[in-house]
Each structure stands twice: as C-alpha cells, then as structure tokens.
C-alpha cells in the first residue's frame, strides 16, 4: 500500500532501475507516517561514506507527540540496503553520473519502505516530449470514452 508518491521524479528523470530500501525511523515518525503526514516531493538520496541517506523528506509531527521529544520534521534518515546493492548504486552514482531519487514510500510486512530509483536527469526538450506524449494519451482516452457512448 502506497503512503506517498514522488510524481515529480518521473517528470524530471529517466528512471532506469528501482530498489527497495528500509528506513531508520523514530517512533513518532512512524505514527505520523501512518497518519499520512509525509511528503517526499523535495527529497533526494545522498551518499555519505559507504552509506545512503534520505535527505529532505518532510514528516510532520502529530499534535499529540510527547512533550519530552522535540521532533525534527526534515532530518536526514538512513536507508537500509544490502551491501552489494549499496556498492552497485554508489559506483553508478560516482562513476556514471546517475542520481538517486526516492520514488515512493509504502508498507511491506508492516514496515515502512522507500523505493529509490537510479535515474538520469532529463533535458528540457525531454520534459516537453514527455508532456506531449501524456497530453496525446489523455486526448485518445477522452476520444475513446466519448466513442463508447
């Protein structure tokens, strides 16, 4: 079940490969995510040393958060992947000029997972072509819908 999608990632990047990563979260963050108070539109994945981190994901604290915890809405959260996957991703980002972008947050087995994509940036003409294709498909779908009636 999807919690939050990053639709902007598909407009700005060519997604070449997808990976599912776990996220290190605090208790109040899990509760806020279950309540739908998360946004990953501005988020991206960074590399520090030999680890991956989710940066810029905004998780708003619930108003009922305890008084002894001072929640930070935008903090760096560690991503959990197998060592082989991490090494492969880091190698492609460093050598080949790829970017890592979060695509969505979802539940799997009661845990929150982050799907990250190995992506190449689109140029402006690529974005226009994507928009043109999308509009064309929308027009065809509308024509088919009116034709059925």
From TrEMBL:
Family annotation (Pfam families): SmpB
Family matches, as PROSITE patterns: SSRP
Domain of life: Bacteria
Subcellular location: Cytoplasm
Sequence segments annotated as region (Disordered): 123-149
UniProt keyword annotation of Nucleus present: no
Keyword presence, Transmembrane helix: no
Keywords from the named record: Cytoplasm, RNA-binding
Principal location: cytoplasm
Biased composition annotated in UniProt, kind: Basic and acidic residues: 127-140
UniProt function note: Required for rescue of stalled ribosomes mediated by trans-translation. Binds to transfer-messenger RNA (tmRNA), required for stable association of tmRNA with ribosomes. tmRNA and SmpB together mimic tRNA shape, replacing the anticodon stem-loop with SmpB. tmRNA is encoded by the ssrA gene; the 2 termini fold to resemble tRNA(Ala) and it encodes a 'tag peptide', a short internal open reading frame. During trans-translation Ala-aminoacylated tmRNA acts like a tRNA, entering the A-site of stalled ribosomes, displacing the stalled mRNA.
Family: Belongs to the SmpB family.
Protein name stated in the entry: SsrA-binding protein
Natural source organism: Pseudoduganella danionis
